[in-house]
Amino acid sequence: MKILSSYYLDFEDNTTLNEQLNCLSQNSLQYLVLRSIGSKQLFSFVSKEIEEFSSQIKKSKAKIAYYDLTLEEYNINDTIKENTIFPLFVKTLDYLKILNIDCLAFNIPLFNDVVKEKELLTTVLNKYYAEAKKRGVTLVIKPNSNHESGVYAYVLKEIVKKGYILYNPLFYYLKKESSISSYRVLREYIKIVVLDDINANSKPSLLGYGEACIRDLFKRLNRDDYQSIVAVDKSMYSHLKKIVPASNKPKKGILKIFSKKPSKEYELIKKRISSNSNKVITYNDILEFYKKIIEIMSR
After folding, report:
1. What is d(CA 142, CA 235) in angstroms, rounded to the nearest whole number?
2. 229-232 and 4-8: which strand pairing?
3. What is the mean pLDDT of residues 160-178?
4. CATH 3.20.20.150 given to domain 4-235
5. Which of helix, strand or coil describes residue 87?
6. Cβ distance 135 to 101 under 8 Å?
7. CA gyration radius, the chain
8. Suppose 106 and one of 12, 69, 177, 286 were both cysteines; which one would form an S-S bond, judging by CB atoms 3.0 to 4.6 Å apart?
9. Is residue 13 over pLDDT 70?
10. How far apart (Å, rounded) are the C-alpha atoms in residues 3 and 30?
11. Are 241 and 208 in contact (CB under 8 A)?
């Protein structure tokens, strides 16, 4: 199994691209997943700003695994809304070319019955895929509704034909569909695996220690010789801020820490990732732990 280990580093609403690039470099992370810059998506910027972002990326020598785009949701039958949303998608594709990013994860329009609406869904998705093909960008569908995995498999096989999907086991756990069963259904279409986890109390958990069956997933990825992107989401960052005891004044910057007092949850996390009982855990430590655990689970 050979994976592209990637990380979402847009921790705060005001996190700049330079802060994300610096975090990537300081922690010796392999790939960055670009999602938001200062709480904005790419289509919110003008081309001059995109060119500056391109210069920053080149200067840092960072590698971008893909861009994660979330379009405003609209129903497949809403042509007025489509006429507003689709140009933003095309604008994003043009910006990706400037940034030299060739993979885009995006949410498709909402639909109710994939069989009854197959013709319309085909027409709309063909527009999206045609524009991406012109620019050499690979599209990866992000599930964004209550449809079961089998419905998305149908979309990929019967409508998109040679399409890909982003697979997040937590997404299926939260809608009470077996993450392992959904993986089996979608296995041949998976281009991106996003890792996120929660505990039995629905709070963010260290990867592999929660309810999303991350360890079981990696067993199957290894068995199937998965050869693509694995991305770690950032949910533990905001959660860590709530539970880490601050020994001094908060540090400035993207990985600052601040909280009130230690908790049993924090002590358990610290025990799992550090042998130093006096150490105050930061998100840098979490990232280092994730690097190691992904390496171990990928063997």
Report:
1. 18
2. parallel
3. 93
4. yes
5. helix
6. no
7. 20
8. 69
9. yes
10. 10
11. no
| Nearest residue to 179 (alpha-carbon basis) of 189, 191, 193 | 193
Whether 256 has a pLDDT exceeding 60, the answer reads: no
The three-state DSSP-derived secondary structure of 206-272 is CCCCCCCCHHHHHHHHHHCCCCCEEEECCHHHHHHHHHCCCCCCCCCCCCCCCCCCCCHHHHHHHHH
CA gap 260, 269 in Å, rounded: 16
Q: Are 96 and 89 in contact (CB under 8 A)?
A: no
Query: Looking at the chain, how many residues does it have?
Result: 299
Q: Can you read off the two tokens belonging to residue 199?
A: 């505990």
Predicted TM-score of the model (pTM) = 0.92
Which residues have CB under 8 Å from 52's CB, separation 6+?
Answer: none
Domains of the chain, by residue range, sit at 4-235
Task: Give residue 251's pLDDT band: very low, low, confident or very high (50, 70, 90).
Answer: low
Question: What is the phi/psi pair of residue 26, to 5°?
Answer: -60, -30
Band of pLDDT at residue 134, cut at 50, 70 and 90: very high
Alpha-carbon gap, residue 27 to 22, rounded angstroms: 8
